[in-house]
Design goal:
homodimer, Enolase-like, domain 1, TIM Barrel, 2 domains, ten-stranded mixed β-sheet, three-stranded antiparallel β-sheet, about 45% helix, about 15% strand
Chain lengths: ~450, ~450
């Protein structure tokens, strides 16, 4: 009768702002960070999850994790991982915490880290990588993970079960295919806003050589720069590789339509985050205004209720789920079900710290046991900070290789947690670091 | 050259769950709480603001306030209060913190507390109650408080200025009227879900005698109970007093339409929070499905972008702004402008700890200098915890009296901050309190 004995949490930050990797029109100087959770079990095992942030405020997520610890400590592990739907409902429905959202922001993301740590634990106990653990569940077991609150006007339990049953047909063949061939990746490496034109072109050529089917550029700071950079990128990759752009929410509705209109000549695979992730009606108007350019969003979509409406309003062509923004695997399962219902492709957001590791399992699961489709789908890839993970995501020839190690790939090395501990780990306490970074 | 010298913050909680005051279908046991901020100035003055929460997790808001402190400390006060629009944009636009929302949840509410503390300071320095301070600003000065990001498709600067200029016509007469007659209040005192039928009837009769024009009942736990309680309330108040109901987000779209249909016979002034505050399209469908029953929401609406869409989608009849949910006075000024543009009445959410104190200024300002209308408008009133405030809100004969003391009415007595300090203040450390409340 193993029980959860408590949380070990870590404020881990990487000084990425020094290189401008990760720079975009909204986020000029991110220090990629994780509010990291090791959920301890008294038999010596553990489950791992985290909230990804970009630096300052990471400690607020740590405070949220601490608030959740009493709700987990003492739980019998077999019971908890045996009904992860019930645990999810208890955490997300906790009325005091709910007031702090509801179902959005700091508290919701912290719940996501806890949920993901529990799934890591569940998959490890089953001896399977998370995507296989999920794919091996029956449609009825998967349905038990879903909370249908607020989505029944778009998708009810009967229809969801139907989708899951149809998704299970041919599952074994698709699992074998995934294990053999992996899943498409696209790369954002060339496109950070802080990079020079030369660096952009070099990285585009490298991406093409490496076999990526799509590259993505950050845009939205200067239209002239964007036109020039898109032209350079398109010339470097040719017509055989797709080109997507990402505005990171900097536009209003009308300015998005105008700006995208000027860039449409570059045959865009999608335009990502044209405006506020809360603006469902705005996305719908933008999509209509720039058709047929596809519109994508999701990395900052707070929960399933917003995704539901983006789909109902026909506001997006591409759903970009994020492993750490919503309340973990359960809520992303709902998002995948909604995408399947509305026939929208899912291309997860990744990068940051550990987002590739965490989210890959969801796309692999989706192909194996839900949508059964890879058409136009790919997972974002940035070759950055993977060395800190015990079972890092691996991309080769433009494809994610199927994770094979048990768990959710969310476990970091203890040495990384120590080296990058903020503010007192060796990386941050070196004298050359500005002591007043918080300002 | 007075400068901001730092934050004093307090975790203040009131054991309200002991009485079931505040109980509703979503929140069975709130302990009303404030993450309270005294923004210190080196000349000995201070500005006061807070985030209202319902207990657990209040400490997470304290962590968010601590993260914001370095951004304020050292600022010259005259410069800060002289351009509160710039301060707002700096805080809300801070990219690292923005990642934790964006513009929603724990971080956004903490920014709201800081902004409201700055407005308290500004009004005190001007020697005016906040509503008068705002009403005395010119249309151009008010416009300078507004960030139009993400709302220009509904309301641009020119149209906003036009609304403010028209709102200023006849301002002096309306200010005099407010000072003489106050502003309508409605009461939620009778309607908490934990109250017996007898208590409900008694409190409805008292509310009628006291001159309130509207009472509100909590609903949504049991349809049979709701039918019985609405009938009892309607009998007690007669037809001369309005009856509103509040479901606190417990329904899905279809169940809301069904449930409200069964209660429509009681001639409802509005149905509040029928479903998720994020569900714009859901509110629109509910409103259409139960017409002509008015639909209200807002106390959990995260920001101006969601309010904008609720108005664009014709999803609500009543906008219920909350002083502490969004990023303070600036963002609520946008919300009031949007309501004026779309011709929707504003009836603020209040109650809790200090919400009546804080939000009354916004309705008084709106009548004086923006909408110029009280038709169908009233501010929620709950006669609870006002004794902890230095300049408490006062309701008499069913109307809020105009605040006359300088500031935003947000300052609490030091003794209250000490008595109700959590977890070590005298109220919480008494032996009869369950030491394990956090579970």
């Amino acid at each position: 009768m193993a029980r959860i004995s408590g949380f070990d949490t870590y404020d881990v930050r990487f000084p990425t702002s020094a290189t401008l990797a990760g720079s975009d029109a909204m986020n000029p100087d991110p220090d990629y960070a994780a509010a990291y959770l090791a959920l301890r079990v008294d038999d010596g095992t553990s489950g791992h999850g985290f909230v990804f942030t970009i630096g300052r405020g990471n400690e607020v997520e740590l405070a949220a994790l601490a608030a959740l610890e009493p709700f987990l400590t003492g739980l019998e592990v077999a019971e908890a991982v045996g009904d992860l739907g019930a645990v999810w409902r208890r955490l997300v429905g906790e009325s005091h915490f709910r007031w702090l959202g509801p179902e959005k922001g700091v508290m919701h993301m912290a719940i996501g880290a806890v949920v993901n740590a529990l799934f890591d634990l569940a998959a490890k106990r089953a001896g399977k990588p998370l995507w296989r653990y999920l794919a091996d569940l029956s449609p009825e077991e998967l349905l038990g993970l879903v909370d249908f609150r607020y989505i029944t006007d778009a998708l009810g339990p009967d229809e969801a079960l139907d989708l899951l049953r149809r998704g299970a047909e041919g599952k074994a063949e698709r699992i074998a295919e995934l294990e053999r061939l992996g899943y498409p990746a696209y790369t954002t490496a060339p496109g950070w806003l802080g990079y020079s034109d030369d660096k952009l072109v070099d990285l585009c050529e490298i991406a093409k050589r490496e076999g990526f089917g799509q590259v993505k550029l950050k845009v939205g700071a200067s239209l002239d720069d964007d036109v020039r950079r898109c032209a350079l990128a398109r010339r470097a990759i040719g017509t055989g590789v797709d080109l997507a752009i990402d505005a990171n929410q900097v536009w209003d509705v009308e300015s998005a339509i105008d700006w995208i209109g000027r860039l449409a000549e570059f045959d865009l695979a999608w335009v990502e985050e044209p405006t506020s992730p809360d603006d469902i009606l705005g996305h719908a108007r933008i999509r209509e205004g720039v058709a047929p350019v596809p519109i994508a969003t999701g990395e900052h979509v707070a929960n399933r209720v917003v995704f539901k409406q983006l789909l109902q309003a026909r506001a997006i062509d591409v759903m970009q789920i994020d492993a750490c923004r919503v309340a973990g695997v359960n809520e992303n399962l709902v998002n995948l079900l909604l995408a399947a219902k509305f026939g929208v492709r899912v291309c997860p957001h990744a990068g940051g710290v550990g987002l590739c590791e965490a989210v890959q399992h969801l796309s692999f699961f989706d192909y194996a046991a839900l949508s059964g489709s890879m058409d136009g789908r790919s997972i974002e890839w940035i070759d950055h900070l993977h060395e800190h993970f015990v079972s890092p995501a691996v991309v080769a020839h433009g494809r994610y290789l199927a994770p094979r190690e048990p768990g959710a790939s969310t476990e970091m090395y203890p040495d990384s947690l120590a080296q990058y501990a903020y503010p007192n780990g060796p990386v941050w306490s070196r004298p050359e670091r500005d002591p007043d970074r918080a300002r």
